[in-house]
Write a structure and sequence with these properties.
Length: about 325
Amino acid sequence: MAAWRGILDRLCPMHVLLDARGYIIHAGPTLRKLRPGAPLAGGRFLDRFDLRRPRAVMSMADLMAASGVKLHLRFRDPPATGLKGVLMPLPGGQGAIVNLSFGISILDAVRDYRLTSGDFAATDLAIEMLYLVEAKSAAMEASRLLNQRLQGARIAAEEQAFTDTLTGLKNRRAMDHVLGRVIATQMPFAVMHVDLDFFKAVNDRLGHAAGDHVLQEVARIMIDATRRGKDTVARTGGDEFVILFEGLTDRAALDRVAGRIIGELEKPIRFDGHVCRVSASCGTALSSDYERPVAARIMADADTALYASKWRGRACHTFFSPDLPLPSPPSPQG
């Protein structure tokens, strides 16, 4: 019997040897690893393992009657790992050998007990399965990371396509997209066109670097004057801006926003030791004034209101109404 143990430990590292009474006299090295603090040898097999199938196995005689039948069992103490097994009697009524395996619970067992390839017989196909699972896991993780990078690149590309690179504001394409979405949801809104006054003089006198600096300051002022997360500010042309106010059609509130923007832009903007002076004209169209808002029509009407502000003397705000004159070209100074 002693000579068999070494052989069985190599060929069947999860076996138990039972004596004629059903007591464990030896357990394979992998099985011992599963219960390092509770030696299996010396205990009664049916006290250490809960036999799920076949049922009603209460004694060694019942176990021997199940010779050659697939056994479904688990440890009685936690973790109650599920096992599969088969029992073969030893010659001369000396007892029996029960060879065990994890079955489909092998992945949980490897995780719970930190098993390695050395804990399985060299011919055990479980090792091949573990290699496949590991390869699949590595491939899935690589795929997940690649998809994550691609998603990040796609978001960055979309963000760049919808962003004005000079000011960091949304561009005309983004404004068209957001306006279309707001109209589709039937949410009330307002569109305000803002055009800088005297901006051409800044470019002509101080150069485009000064003009770029002014535009960046204008963007900051507009962001500060609007509601973060609710309003969309876009640069739609050289010195032209559009603000979309979602859920806001109150004329007094919109007039206050326009007044704040105009007031801030009338303050001198310093650049490289020089003073840049601009102002702003604003025109607003309200979705509530239309039976069925159409993006192109509202944008055009906000533009009409803007040019009405230009002809009123600049640095003011006008709401669109049907009796406003159609826009005509402003003076070269904007």
